[in-house]
Amino acid sequence: HQYLYDYYYISTRLYHSAYANIKRDPQLLEKSNYLIDRLKELNPNRHETYFMAIERVMLMRNFIEASEISKKVISITNNDISGSGHYYLGLSLIGLNKMSEGLEEVKRGIELGYQYEDPFSAQTFGNYFGDAEMYAESLHAYNSAIRLSGGNDLESELKIGLIYFFKGELKEAKQSLLNVSRKYKNLSKNEGFNLFAPIFNELGVPFN
């Protein structure tokens, strides 16, 4: 059963990846739905089964159903796994234009052990949390983005300095931006850097 479960699970992820990144062909999601049903037959309460079901309906932009499945994951799993449930519930709520509630769920998921899986999602939530003035969560997300990018993520590194600046922690902001200035050459030539230049100037951080 384990071999068959793994085969169905990996195949489902491949269908979802193809739909999201290559071609939005509804047949891909029909095939993944068939495999999700097989996963449920093999192990109806295994959390990976639910996560695949959530991923599928979110690709269909059915955020109400995604939120309902996420709540079920939270109800039947332990804290480590329910962290992912809270994260997906947060995503679902954001999809339903309930940003504040969604961010609270994502925050809860992180507190229970959820870890961002890719730099793009981490950076996106860094932005969301920053806009909501949830600065601790924003810093965590940007640091996760840097880690997932192999240690080099200029945008996230700049925004960490920005977060410290908005928090009024000017010493930390200056040190953070000094580190960026020393690490990256020709900062002024990077697209979007003009948005950060006034803060560099205000803090007395040199750049070229």
Features:
single chain, 208 residues, mainly alpha, 11 helices
Largest sheet: none
Q: Count of helical segments? A: 11
Shape: elongated
Low-confidence stretches: none
Structural class: mainly alpha
Distance between the termini: 59 Å
H/E topology pattern? HHHHHHHHHHH
Percent in helix: over 70%
From the alpha carbons, calculate the radius of gyration and give it in angstroms: 20 Å
Let me know the number of strands.
Answer: 0
Mean pLDDT: 92
Strand content range: under 5%
Structure notes:
This protein has 208 residues and is mainly α. The protein is 75% helix and 0% strand. The longest helix is centred in the first third of the chain and has 20 residues, at 2-21. The chain is elongated and about 65 Å long. The model has no long low-confidence stretch (mean pLDDT 92).
